[in-house]
Amino acid sequence: MIQALRDRLAGPRTGTAPFAPFEWTIAGRYLRTRRKEGFVSAIALFSFLGIMLGVATLIIVLSVMSGFRKELLSKIVGINGHIFVAPIDKPLTDFADLTDRLSKVAGVTLALPLVEGQAFASSPYGGSGVLVRGVRAEDLRRIPAVAGNIRGGSLDTFDAGAGVAIGRRLAESLGLQAGDTITLATPKGATTPFGTAPRIKSYAVAAVFEIGMSEFDASFVYMPLAEAQGFFNRDGDVSVIEIFIDDADAVGEARGALELAAERPVVLTDWRQRNRTFFSALEVERNVMFIILTLIVLVAALNIVSSLIMLVKDKASDIAILRTMGATRGTIMRVFLITGASIGFVGTLVGCLLGIVFAANITLIQRTLLPGVWDPTVRFLSEIPSEINPGEVAAVVLMSLVLSLLATLYPSWRAARLDPVQALRYG
């Protein structure tokens, strides 16, 4: 009888079409919980939860880190420019003509002549070191990070040199608001027979701005260009010309055209050189977090392997009966492939939706559940940023699906290789 059964199984058979409806039906029944199979189903549930949480966590973390990079880039580069033009052999006394030539280069949105210097700001309520930036009024209005974030006063009186614009955190630390007076002191004052005397001068606070990055809001003071030249003893020249371009990542292509347009010896540096260590650290951290969090999905995929192996062992007699009824090895393999892949597919889908919803509303969640926990003086930004990158989401989903599919191959192959005769004899 056993030999006849072997001959029947070894004989020619036509089989059914791959992934036929009855294969999905059997796989669905294997996914349902029964009392005697509760342990196997519990492992499958943990596998589903692991993949769901792993995918969701990956999407959330990558979205937050992409948001961090975008926000920091927009704050640091948006306020400081993309390319910096400095003199070599002589001061930039011709900054007006040079700025006009540079602003005509394709891709340049703003050329900003600038005087920079350190100073000490004080009021009756305190004092703090600041970075004074002398700019032309029309140029300041073209910097969205400042002109678009005025929290008090206005830039109308900035034209006449009657006031300065300061950051909100600096205003809070000094107890100032628009209309009050701030005193600035610098060691680079007037030259006397006894040396250089410090210069101390008071200015009206014309405007209070909030860039959104605590380091800038606590230290930046904008002053009219002509006033800054006199304050820092500049002889009609500027410290540097900052160039803003359309695409911050295209600074390499713009450098050549700017050097030709300068028509004089200059040194060009860009934001990547000035912030190389900072943004490189962000990129390394992002890649490491991706690798670490991928291990969550990998562990969940290994749980699929263990749950399917146990399911194959538990269903050995069912497999034998199916084989004797005419099911091919391919049919058995596809049944268990569908069973395991379903766990990974559904877990990936639910995790993807959960991650996208959480990442899209992370600021609202932070404000609702964790008010006051995000300290901008420590973390530079006032809110948790998030930017969902469709390419990154697709990569996470694809990675999870591939791992889930690979996890089902060995248990499915083992089920297909099961000897039905032995299974019926010892089952």
TrEMBL record:
Read off the Pfam families from this record: FtsX, MacB_PCD
Q: Which residues form the MacB-like periplasmic core domain?
A: 47-259
The membrane topology noted for this protein in its Swiss-Prot or TrEMBL record is: Multi-pass membrane protein
Q: Which UniProt keywords apply?
A: Cell membrane, Lipoprotein, Membrane, Transmembrane, Transmembrane helix, Transport
Q: Does the keyword Oxidoreductase apply?
A: no
Annotated transmembrane regions? 39-65, 288-312, 332-365, 393-410
> Would I find Transmembrane helix among this entry's keywords?
yes
Domain ABC3 transporter permease C-terminal stretches:
290-420
Q: Where in the cell is it found?
A: Cell membrane
Family to which this protein belongs: Belongs to the ABC-4 integral membrane protein family. LolC/E subfamily.
UniProt xrefs under PANTHER family: LIPOPROTEIN-RELEASING SYSTEM TRANSMEMBRANE PROTEIN LOLE
**Protein name, please?**
Lipoprotein-releasing system transmembrane protein LolE
Organism name: Methylobacterium isbiliense
